[in-house]
Write the structure tokens for this entry.
Amino acid sequence: MIGVSRPTPQNSYPGGSTVIVSTKPLTDRSRLSEAHAEMIKATLPLVGSKINDITPVFYNRMFTAHPELLRSTFNRANQKQGDQQKALAASIATFATMLVDPEAPDPVDMLARIGHKHVSLGITADQYNIVHEHLFGAIVEVLGADVVTPPVAEAWDAVYWLMANVLIDLESDLYASNDLAPGDVFRHVTVTGKKQLSDKVWEYTFEGDLVTPAPGQYTSIGVKLPDGARQLRQYSLLSGTDSQYRIAVEDNGEVSTFLRDNVEVGDTIEASVAAGDLVMNDDVNPVVLISQGIGSTPMVGMLNQVAADRHVTVLHADQSEKDHAQREEMVALVGGLANGALYTFYRDADQWLNVAGHIPSDASVYLCGGNEFLQNVRGQLENLEEQPREIRFELFSPNDWLIS
């Protein structure tokens, strides 16, 4: 796992509004009692081996009791594919391992991503009780009451609430950082612009009572689908102020398709205030932005706010120049920098992104793209003789593979 240093994010950016980036999770390995730690050590192999069986049962139990969560909060596509179950399983196992193994990495980055995602969805502290009830019901159902004895249940209950309270505290701080009541993140906004950038990517501009985003953040868009379900998806911001956001949406799911076919200029949709912890620092050290496909969106957001004299290197991979949706804007933004360089890699020309020679000393590296792409780039970065100052990333899918 790449070591990541975390400078304290700044609280405000041009535009005057406070943004939701000021806090990171506080983890403490010593908070689990010795007796509970011994029980977790003894049962972690069993629970870990069964956790991918436990999580589907958990979600089925929870959505049966609370169907409104699947219709209005959770991503139905990820549920259908099992991605969200894998992410939850990985996060719980990773957190438990951190508590009992002094050599295990602190999952602070994992928890930060989860906390910001929860804030962007308007998750509140009381919903952790719902998760607790059905998760532990699923554990007993899968493992059996003879295995999940009271001491075992008590130890895993302690792990759950330690993790839950870390997230609850983080999310409370994030809401408070912008004077928001917990869960009060969605605004009705008016679409003021819609244009096609490529065969698969559309750009939308909308206006409302929003919050100035930090460079690299995202917004959750909510739409009511024909079957009555309110579905939410996160989209990175190309640019934004406290009254206007601009996003790019790739056609790859029911929400993006609905936006393309049904939402026009003048229509009203839901949008959350900006969230997300992939935030470019405002230091003076070199910056390297590495992206694939629609992962260029947060990089354009960063380029729109980076200081004109900062050393910035942009590496972007795509299927072809035609598919590079933000190419024109990216070229213009990099061209406006005193020390900017853009390198593109197109698969139809048999070009493959290679970081060698592009990572300056003391650089801050920001990554965004698909799972395989990020795995590949992460491996390349790990093999460099000199490691960058920090490596930050964003995924457009549940990020279970990155937290192992």
